[in-house]
Amino acid sequence: MTIPEAPQSAKHRTTEETMRQVNSLSHTRWECKYHIVFILKFRRKMLFGHIRKELGEVFHRLAKQKESLIEEGHLMPDYVHMMI
Questions:
Q1: CA angle, 28 as apex, 23 and 31 as ends, to 5°?
Q2: How far is 33 from 83, CA to CA, in rounded Å?
Q3: Which of 11, 33, 14 is nearest to 22 (CA)?
Q4: Residue 60, pLDDT above cutoff 90
Q5: H or E stretch including 64?
Q6: What is the distance between the alpha carbons of residues 70 and 64, in angstroms, rounded to a whole number?
Q7: CA 70, CA 67: separation in Å to the nearest integer?
Q8: Reduced to 3 states, what is the DSSP secondary structure of residue 27?
Q9: Maximum alpha-carbon separation in the chain
Q10: What does the pLDDT look like over 3-58, one tens digit per residue?
Q11: Pairing of strands 72-75, 79-83
Q12: Alpha-carbon gap, residue 62 to 54, rounded angstroms
């Protein structure tokens, strides 16, 4: 994990720098990440083909809209796993 040496104003930060922001206080540093899992009812295997491709695009669009980054993700036939 790299921490920028000189703080930049919010106007000059790139989108990825904003998404990977490391917060800190006087004695602590942290980077907030979320582990999200969606499981289909009765574990039905329905996420494949056209639906799978479309869901991937939707999740990436939503993450970009919320200024987040999907660091890891898996679209399986019966569940979705993401690290944001």
A1: 35
A2: 7
A3: 33
A4: yes
A5: helix 50-65
A6: 9
A7: 10
A8: coil
A9: 51
A10: 444 444 444 445 455 556 788 888 898 888 899 999 999 988 998 889 999 999 99
A11: antiparallel
A12: 12
Beta bridge partners, 81, equal: 37, 74
Q: Is the dihedral of CA 10, 12, 14, 17 positive or negative?
A: negative
The tokens 């479309």 sit on which residue?
A: 54
The full set of domains in the chain, from first to last, is 33-83 (3.30.70.1290)
Count of alpha carbons within 13 angstroms of residue 40, beta-carbon side: 12
- Quickly list H helices, the chain: 15-19, 50-65
Q: What CA–CA distance (Å, rounded) separates 80 from 34?
A: 14
